[in-house]
Amino acid sequence: MVKKKLPKRAQGFVPARVLQNTAKVMYPFYRAIAFHKRYADGWSKAVISPDLDKMVRLLTKVSPRAKGLSLGSNGIGYFIGFPVKNPYLEFSNGTTVIPGTAQFTFDPRIHQAIARAVLPFYYKLAKDRSFAVSLSNAVRSGNEKVVRCLIRSFVRTPALISVKMDLDGPGISLNFKYKSSKFIYRNLLFIDQA
What we know:
The protein has helices spanning 16-35, 37-48, 52-62, 108-127, 129-140, 144-152; strands spanning 70-73, 77-83, 89-97, 160-164, 171-177, 184-193.
């Protein structure tokens, strides 16, 4: 999946309401991944295939509010797109192995561990408007230190090796490295061209 540089008019970050809506849709999905091995196994197989129809079925089964959202897979991860006011852009959330380091690899055990780690963060984002506003403002202003502090206060695993704002456009990358895998996995929140 090729990422293109965003036009200058899109160099802001999404408002808190988009962050909250994203978290409200994604929290039940991450909870299902975290605590249901069979579900996590099925999702990983669909990502590697890639079988978008199966991914849609699995996602909407646990999070009905995801119906109609765009979904993508590159064989090493997935992205779920949320509409924003600009019809040429969408806000994406997903998890992937760093591109260029693997092909058709997506370990369900690692994905489960990441899902368990990010659940408190997505819960807080979904439920606490002031937290969502703080995160949105920190990304918009380029304050990576505040972004790291906000995220690390809820994602407490030692496997979280970095929190960065290193994407082509405005966004956040939570980078995880587990001892059982040679790959770095990224949980991403970013603006993408639709």
